[in-house]
Design a protein that fits this description.
Order of helices and strands: HHHHEEHH
Number of strands: 2
Structural class: mainly alpha
Largest sheet: 2 strands, antiparallel
Helix content: over 70%
Number of helices: 6
Distance between the termini: 24 Å
Strand content: 5-15%
Shape: elongated
Radius of gyration: 18 Å
Strand order of the largest sheet: 1-2
């Protein structure tokens, strides 16, 4: 690894740890980052099926089913049979699930505000441009 890559690796690792530490601090009844991502996906869509989640996360339906069972059992999401197609079940987020997402969003807004107060407008614009560029290339 080149020295600049090593420096980036260390900085990125610290940043990742900051985010994960916050997620773990909000650990309610064993909710993991994967659970959080599923809850947020459903919340942003309004409702979703297990199949939609499986496709979006590129994970087998069996693996998603295990995660969904936990989230349903813990009352973070609810599963309701569709009225017109009884084979289809829609998932939606409960108030308990919304609390987790809202708490995380509050954290992200605080980090955004702190970052904006540390960097100049030009640095923030460059930082955002570079993050966006990398994210767009890394998305599968």
């Amino acid at each position: 690894m080149k020295p600049i890559e090593k420096e980036f690796f260390n900085t990125f690792t610290d940043f990742q740890c900051l985010i994960l530490a916050h997620m773990n601090r909000g650990d309610i009844n064993g909710v993991t980052a994967a659970h959080y991502n599923i809850i947020e996906f459903i919340m942003r869509k309004g409702t979703a099926t297990g199949r939609e989640i499986s496709i979006a996360f590129n994970i087998s339906q069996a693996a998603i089913s295990k995660q969904l069972k936990f989230l349903i059992d813990q009352n973070f999401i609810v599963r309701e049979q569709e009225k017109t197609d009884h084979r289809k079940f829609n998932l939606s987020v409960t108030d308990k699930g919304r609390f987790i997402i809202d708490n995380s969003e509050t954290f992200r807004k605080a980090i955004t505000h702190q970052t904006a107060s540390i960097l100049t407008s030009k640095e923030l614009k460059n930082f955002n441009y570079l993050l966006d560029k990398v994210l767009n290339q890394l998305k599968l």
